[in-house]
Amino acid sequence: MTAHAQTETRTMPAWRQDRYGEPDAVVFEEAAVPTPGRDEVLLRPRVTALNNGDVRVMRGEPRLVRAAFGLRRPKQPVRGMDVAATVVAIGDGVTGFAVGDEVFTELPGGGGLARFALAPAKRLARRPADLAPELAATLPIAGGTAWQALDLAGVGGSTRRVLVIGASGGVGTFAVQLAALRGAEVWALCGDRNRALVEGLGATRSFDYRQVQPGSPELAPGSFDAVIDIAGTAPLRTLQNLVRDGGTVALVAGEGGRILGPMGRILRAALMSIGSRRPLRAFVAATDTGVLTQLAAHVVAGRVRPVIERTFPFDQARAALAHVAAGHTAGKVVVTAAD
């Protein structure tokens, strides 16, 4: 740790897991404060936002994720990938940031459910003074994924109508707003209890996914310029038929087996897109500080409103993980910092 650190603390409270499993595998304990290496900073999270990705890593499912996150147990034992935080120490080679800076970012693999966390300096975006940390923490994965999915599907300019499937979750609530902001007419599939929410965010029409699915009469073939599929359960051919020639289906997520997860679906999508005028495009969102800066500006200006369903205190972080793991969260779940 550099001489510029604002803390001499050697241990910290953290929610950690030493095995894959359900939320009961995550336990509260004291852990060593990490030291920033070259090109890293040490952060003190103010707010941590949870994502479905945190649950997948917690469970180690599909098994394919273990190749990246740890074969027998998570290499990073602390969950929580998205944070709004204060820089408290900097490693060698870090320029452009100083102790005391307020930032928000996606932590590789997690780390946010602890008093301190490490982050690569290149991933940091500055948090504007008039952007609350609770709102900033929701932006990196959910907001960034929605932005990149819309880019991939070509939403903007001549795009007239967009269908968002899974519109009430973290990514979906941002996708609806950003598509509308880009001038598209947005249709949305979500649970019935969340239809008013997504219409308030900018959807022109919404449907209860239990009653209307891709292929239903209400969603006629060729009706859309783009489809953003976040739910990941509809047949690929049906999704492809929803868009006009020249339209694109962006596959944000996908279901599959316990071993390979959505890989089979992704490969089928790639094969079906060869020579097609209605391609199916799967992607993995990457941290883009330029996108995060633009998202922050939209929130500050009131053009985009992060939806926070529940806020948990740090000592209830395991309950927050359980809430996300149970599914059907509307918008985001956030955890406030340790005292």
Describe the structure.
There is one protein chain. By secondary structure, the protein is an alpha/beta fold. Helices cover 26% and strands 25% of the residues. It is built from ten helices and 15 strands. The protein has helices spanning 52-59, 66-69, 133-136, 139-152, 170-181, 195-200, 236-242, 263-273, 289-300, 317-325, and strands at residues 11-16, 27-32, 40-50, 82-90, 102-106, 117-120, 125-126, 161-165, 185-190, 205-208, 224-229, 243-251, 280-282, 308-312, 332-336. Strands 3, 4, 5, 6, 7, 14 and 15 form a seven-stranded mixed β-sheet that branches. The longest helix has 14 residues, at 139-152. The model has no long low-confidence stretch (mean pLDDT 94).
Span between N and C termini?
22 Å
Structural class: alpha/beta
Q: SSE string, helix = H, strand = E?
A: EEEHHEEEEHHEHEHEEHEHEHEHE
Coarse shape? globular
